[in-house]
Input
Amino acid sequence: MAFRLTPHERGFYPLFTRAAENIAVAADELAKLVATDPAGRHTLAARVKEAELAGDEVTHEIMVKINTTFVTPFDREDIYRLASALDDVLDAIEEAADRIVLYRLGTLPDGIGAQVEVLQRAAAATAEAMPRLEKMAELQEYWIQVNSLENEADDIYRTLLGDLLAPPEGAPPADVLTVLKTKEVVETLEEAADAFETVANTVESIAVKEA
Amino acid sequence: MAFRLTPHERGFYPLFTRAAENIAVAADELAKLVATDPAGRHTLAARVKEAELAGDEVTHEIMVKINTTFVTPFDREDIYRLASALDDVLDAIEEAADRIVLYRLGTLPDGIGAQVEVLQRAAAATAEAMPRLEKMAELQEYWIQVNSLENEADDIYRTLLGDLLAPPEGAPPADVLTVLKTKEVVETLEEAADAFETVANTVESIAVKEA
Amino acid sequence: MAFRLTPHERGFYPLFTRAAENIAVAADELAKLVATDPAGRHTLAARVKEAELAGDEVTHEIMVKINTTFVTPFDREDIYRLASALDDVLDAIEEAADRIVLYRLGTLPDGIGAQVEVLQRAAAATAEAMPRLEKMAELQEYWIQVNSLENEADDIYRTLLGDLLAPPEGAPPADVLTVLKTKEVVETLEEAADAFETVANTVESIAVKEA
Output
């Protein structure tokens, strides 16, 4: 990043870091939720919801700062896009937790645990990358990592969908309503994985401009 | 908004107002449709379709004007985004009406009436706000109102999904095909509510820039 | 397009043409896939997948070129949007082929063949239009054609959905899991048709700016 004569507002970086750390918290609570018995899910879903509300606060702080800061560290529009992309990740994680409870799902297929585990790793990678935004340093390994996690998530997602909708011969007949509900949770988790990729792509496009 | 030396084209404002008023007409016809017997729905769906075609006309007029106007009242891209966002609202309303008829749905759950009622209020708020775009006046209460309506819509949507997919104990067993069809209508109405919020967010971002 | 003093990089045009020709290949293989017996689908899905990977290569080449080219023939952001829109078409075509195989679907409804046939025509129109981007010539007939194909696709899609979810009286009772799987393929094909329209709209917006 070029040397700048105008010292610009650095307060955005800690906010992005806070947003990503908060996503990591939500992903960890979701992991506990999908590993626990249906009876224990309510409390954990409430914690995911708390994280989502904390995230909304951070997003709001970023938006206010965009409109009240004279010199932003990078384009206002890019700040807006990055904040929105982080917000989308959190929304998808919260929606997945909410749906599992709302639909009173019983035992979940193992693949859902695997999906969430990938989300946890993507969240950790994102939380580690955000503080490096300020120096635009070592961001490439972050993109590569998130893109590779997204491929991993895709494979799990695809297998889950196949097992759900075209169960192997000899498997017990599926209850269609359960298929429908499980499919929606699986798709929401895939959205979260895609949303992490959007965050990484947004960071990449900012880094390219600022290079 | 700063004083401008170049008198710019004011013809955009009436077009946005017309677009929003037309959405209000479509929402009102949809409200009649969901309150009536299946036999009477066809005629009302045709009126929603008429409103959609009228809306396409307005969108087209705006697009032509963007390309033929030298000085626009705000960024061309913002005009384009606002026109598209209004168009998306109307598309979702028309799609919901179309699906109810196409799927030959019988009696609809009460929650659908509640969803449409929120859409009517969002449409009225939007139609009232559009003429204020010119002076960028009193737009904040409009955003707050639409955002609060969106939260209301979310709650209704969430309860509807829960009742559909995880009916309370003792409820008669659901016909899965009916669940599937109803779910699609419910989701399309939720898209319409989200689309109203996108309109409000677009107006907000324009107001912030022009402030 | 105005005369330019700075000779700019022309290498983007052949890349867009290659992307569109590759989409045409994928659409043709998909047409064979939906016309063949379930047993023969695997090989054809693999060919669609190959085309998708070839497309990813082209997209990557365009993205690298955006970042390494000093003077681009039109806005970097527009190049990015056009490349992404072409990529979205290919993704939807590949997803449809993949789902048909993954879900082990049996005989497909005729409407699916009709959907794919429209996609083939849209692909051919797009492949013919791309080389004309350089001179911004005769692009209007391309937009009109793609928009009219999109309307055709919409009608087929709507009838298919109606037949699937509200089968005519006297039709044999539907297997809901098959309905669910078929519906997803039908929707993915509709996404491909919409994605062609987005490509055409992107080209239109570029042409308007450069005019």
Remarks:
- The interface with chain B takes residues 67, 98, 102-104, 176-177, 180-181 of chain A (CB under 8 Å).
- The CA atoms of residues 1 and 211 of chain A lie 5 Å apart.
- Helices of chain A lie at 12-35, 41-68, 76-102, 110-129, 140-165, 176-210.
- The domain at 12-166+176-210 of chain A is CATH 1.20.58.220 (Methane Monooxygenase Hydroxylase; Chain G, domain 1).
